[in-house]
Amino acid sequence: MNSSRALLVWAAGVAAYLVAVTQRTTFGVAGLEATDRFEASASQLSVFTVVQLLVYAGLQVPVGVLVDRWGPRVLIVAGGVLMALGQAQLAFADSVGAGIVGRLFVGAGDATTFISVIRLLPAWFEPRRIPVLTQWTGIIGQLGQVVSVLPFVALLSTFGWQTAFLSAAAFSALAVVLSATVIRDSPHPSERSPQTLRQTGISLAEAWKQPGTRLGLWSHFTVQFPGTVFVLMWGYPYLVRAEKVGEGVASALMTLFVAVGIACGPLLGRYVGRHPLRRSTMVLAIVALMAGAWLAVLLHPGPAPLPLLALLVIALAIGGPGSMIAFDFARTFNPAGRMGTATGIVNIGGFMASLLSMFVIGIILDVLLGTGFSQGDLYALPSFRLAMSVQLVILAAGTAALLIARRRVRRQMAQQGVVVPPIRDALARERRRRRDQKAARKPQGG
Questions:
Q1: Quick one: how far is CA 248 from the chain centroid?
Q2: Rounded distance between C-alpha atoms, residue 3 and residue 384, angstroms
Q3: DSSP letters along 285-347, please?
Q4: Would you tell me how many other CB atoms lie within 10 Å of the CB of residue 443?
Q5: Which DSSP symbol is given to 210?
Q6: What would the mean pLDDT of 327-349 be, rounded to a whole number?
Q7: 216 pLDDT higher than 60
Q8: What is the C-alpha to C-alpha distance for residues 347 and 60, in angstroms, rounded to an integer?
Q9: What's the pTM?
Q10: Which of 88, 156, 207, 265 qualifies as a cystine partner to 164, CB 3.0-4.6 A?
């Protein structure tokens, strides 16, 4: 595991993931232009992203199986090709159907990338470094949102729809060349032997039966979707049209989302590495933070003040690196040979919750417009508040499932002799440890 070579392979994988996130989020910031170009209603507009995420989520398990069978490099390159084709298709699309075909290709290509990059880590790095590197993978990848919010929006507003999306396609083509040139599946490729079909089926069944995999699934389901819904689809229209903050401020808030993820990711990675028995506690704390922030914004009389909106964005942004904890469950509760499969199962969670939320929000907005509640404004603030509140229901359902899965995991751990002490005991022990360390650093008298 030569460190410089390992870092080079990882860097190329992260670059591919950054490009994938850029392609994933371009349509979210082009929503207003898409409404005019395709003459689409809110529910039709949501179908673009719902189809993209449905394909993404539906392919997670097959892609995980294929990663374990064929290796990450093939899947990363294939994903880049699909995304380039999808963005080129969208550039020339002039109807809802043609546009959806483009997003379908983007979703399929995007589906192959993250799992494959995560699968590279145990092959190239020692286990103690993986939690922090997983966080950095997510953090750097999310910079793709900045590419879609700033350069892509500038291209869209200056040169128009076709140039912007063709440029996005070219970005994916560059990632394909880099991935094919630099990425290798492991330091010793000859040692890897593909699974047979029978072994693949057994691996899938065993990954699903493992309670730790399901804990990862429900953790990802609950923590990841609020930020994804906000960034991919409804956040930008909500800020600009409902909260009336202006496009510049909305772009700044979207950039804040990425900055907070960058700042929090390493901290959460170190937390996971030092306190592996408290990972689910951190997930639940992040869920409570996001729910509280949304309640504060939705219950505020009139448009929310900018500091409150910034607080909401910060809370949602923490959910991004928080969702990476779910993949650590997949890694630690499954052997390396089925890590891709387990990661695929986990990754379904957040995106299923996201597409459900996006689609229901669009339907509610259309229904409220049709009934006259919105008074002719599809994106009226009262309508958006009612539509966005559906996320609180999904958060509650996900939290309940997460708690059930955690109880089963802890029961399994107890059978293996690992007992998770109450949080108050753990905090008391941590205070004693810090006190002893501080005393040990003091110079001795005499």
A1: 24
A2: 49
A3: HHHHHHHHHHHHHHTSSSSPPHHHHHHHHHHHHHHHHHHTHHHHHHHHTS-GGGHHHHHHHHH
A4: 4
A5: -
A6: 81
A7: yes
A8: 7
A9: 0.73
A10: 156
Phi, psi of 351 (to 5 degrees): -80, -30
Confidence tier at 146 by pLDDT (50, 70, 90): confident
* From 90-104, 177-191, 228-242, the region with the lowest mean pLDDT: 177-191
CB crowding 16-43: b at 16 or more within 10 Å, else e: bbbbbbbbbbbbbbbbbbbbebbebbbb
Q: Which residues are CB-neighbours of 100 under 8 A, at least 6 positions away? A: 47, 48, 51
The percent of residues in the chain predicted with pLDDT above 90, rounded, is 23
Give the pLDDT confidence score for residue 195 in this predicted structure.
60
User: Rounded to whole angstroms, how far apart are CA atoms 160 and 68?
Assistant: 41
Burial class (CB in 10 A: 0-12, 13-18, 19+), 247: middle
Q: With beta carbons less than 8 A apart as the criterion, state whether 132 and 140 touch.
A: no
**Amino acid identity of 281?**
T
Residue pLDDT, tens place only, 322-335: 888 888 888 888 87
Neighbours of 360 (CB within 10 A): 18
CA distance 329 to 207: 11
- How many CA atoms, within 13 angstroms, populate the side-chain half-sphere of residue 80? 26
Q: How far is CA 379 from CA 29, 33, 96, 403, in A?
A: 15, 15, 20, 35
Q: Angle at CA 284, nearest 5°, toward 425 and 271?
A: 65
Q: What is the pLDDT, as a whole number, of residue 315?
A: 94
Amino acid at 257: F
Residue 246 structure tokens: 């202006």
What 3-state class would DSSP assign to 40?
A: coil
Would you say how long the chain is, in residues? 446
Amino acid at position 159, single letter: F
Taking the C-alpha atoms of residue 414 and residue 270, their distance in angstroms, rounded to an integer, is 25
123 and 34 Cβ atoms separated by less than 8 Å: no
**Whole-number Å distance between alpha carbons of 445 and 283:** 45
**Residue 35 to residue 85: CA distance in whole angstroms:** 22
**pLDDT (tens digit per residue) in 249-262:** 888 888 888 788 88
Write out the two tokens for 319. Answer: 């959910």
As a whole number of Å, the end-to-end CA separation of the chain is 49
